[in-house]
Amino acid sequence: MKKPSFFLLFVAFGVQTAVAQTSEIERLRTQLLMSKDSLRRVDLLNRMATLFYEVNIDSTFNLAKLAREISDRHDYQKGKTDAIKNLGISFDVRGNPQLALRYYFKAYEGYQAMKDHANSVQMQMNMAMVYQQTGNDPRAIELFNEALTQGAQLAKDSMLAPLLYNYLLMYPRHFGSDTTKYYLSKAKDIARRYKDQLVLLAIEQLEANELIEGGQRREGIERLELAIQKAHKQKLYYASMDMMIGAGDQLLPDDTTRALSHYREALRIAEKQGYLSYSQEISRKLFDFYEGADYKQAAYYARLSLTLADRQREQENASGVDYMGYAIQESQLASAQRHLSDQRKLLLIGLMALLMVIIILVLIRRNLLKSRYFNQQLVLKNRDLKDTLSALEHSHKENTRILRVVAHDLRSPVGAIYSLAGIMLSHSERQPDDMEILGLIRTSGANALQLVDDLLQAQFKTENIAKELLDISEVLKYCVTILKPRAEAKKQDLVLHVLPLEIPANREQLWRVISNLITNAIKFSPEAARIEVVAEKVADKVYIKIIDDGIGIPEKLKAGIFKLYSPSKREGTAGEKTYGMGLAISKQIVEGHGGRLWFEPNNPRGSVFIVELPLWQ
User: Fold this and answer.
1) What is the value of pTM for the model shown?
2) Could you report the per-residue pLDDT of 234-291, keeping only the tens digit for each?
3) How much helix, strand and coil, in percent to the nearest 5, is found in the chain?
4) Element housing 105 (H / E)
5) Do 519 and 446 meet the contact criterion of CB atoms below 8 Å apart?
6) Are residues 497 and 534 in contact, defined by beta-carbon separation less than 8 angstroms?
7) Which helix or strand (DSSP H or E) is residue 273 part of?
8) Do domains 1-183 and 196-315 have the same CATH topology?
9) Domain boundaries, the chain
10) Distance of alpha carbon 198 from alpha carbon 190, whole angstroms
11) Please, how many CA atoms are within 13 Å of residue 502, restricted to the half-sphere of its CB?
């Protein structure tokens, strides 16, 4: 279906004729210059933005943007919502349906919060039309029905006329013949009551189309041409062009002279008014008609189409309006505001944690004083020793919990340092010394994040692990893909041998185990080493092997390699840091899945870490 003219999208804004529209803009501009009240200025700016969409869409965008900025400063919710609606119009006219939907929906939420049901219905209609244009008919019909239900409850039903018209225009076969006639009659009565000439003309066009499709072709075309004459008289250029194109399409098969006359007249108006999108559409229709029939005419309209396309690009380049930039900046601002809110919450949590630490320290000090006293009285009060030991154990648990809270709170600032260093490194114009320092900051941040993650996982509980049926080959492929650049940095060959095997497991925890084992293999293997990741099935078990030909595990370190806070730790072959917790956590996760984790020597050198998991549980 041909996309309707934009005047049909926004007809509810009260635009009557081109002359009245221009006069209204001038009147509003005068009032704006004289107004001293900020909220009044916002309302005037929004009204002008609404009227400007047919004249200059860049003006609509700029006026709406200014109205929103002033509304934000004065916390004027109605002005802000109206501005968001006009921003949606500007993105819609510019041909960006996704951004248009985003702003229409935000405006809809704003109007709903203010209980402005008329504007809520209007936003539902606009969203429905955008969904129809993008091919999502079920969602469009759903929104039309919701708007129709809510619109029927409005005290002032002027909104129902354009709503009914647009619904019937876009989905003429959605209703039966009697229902269509009823809705057309109702829309016409409402438009007459509110003297909405634009909707009345649009309904005449729709009725003419109904006559043509119903077999009354001559009567329908006469009705359509009469509506065109009315649109000309009232200087409703958008409406007249749309109807002339429709008349041309209807007449082209059997009356090419009249059809071409309508096309050329529509083209003349479009060029005179500067409607480039209409000029391009009509010139393409004329080119299609003359192609193969009249070489000179076809060449003329082909050149005209190219000229219009160039002019459209020039206008867009000269407009100075960065529509996408504004949307991106707004998104970034909203993200920054959410981040600030999160930071405030984290600060509050940090203060509470600090208070808890102080209280715990006071309690610890008190308990230590008690312990000292009990130790002095040990001979006389042996029974009190048990209470003292119990108090110390409680203090240890509290300290462990505080450590996890502190580690959790450290993650956000450390993550922010790591991210900011990465952003600053992306700017290549920095001095080499600065780049080196930023690289050190980013590396230190990454190490700190790894340490914080290990601390958070140190108290991992294996009870009630949430599992799902997952393909182990997908997890292994993902791990290898993520870690391959790290291996390539040491010129290592990371090889994967897998077959599809489904097991019940927790995806995130299993990924952590495999990622940790492959990272260790990379860390403790020299340059140009070969690392293999193999998955195989034996009976009702799955075995995942990470095989390297690295430096192996010395005998003195083997006993403590799976212990938490193990002393069995050393630097990697390129000086990589290790914290001695990863393997302990990995073993705990595997055993929580009902499996086993162990290692074997890989002769003549290197190691093989083996994860055994059950196929079913």
Assistant:
1) 0.47
2) 777 767 777 888 888 888 888 889 889 988 988 888 787 666 777 888 899 899 888 8
3) 70, 5, 25
4) helix 97-113
5) no
6) yes
7) helix 256-273
8) yes
9) 1-183, 196-315, 341-457, 468-614
10) 12
11) 3
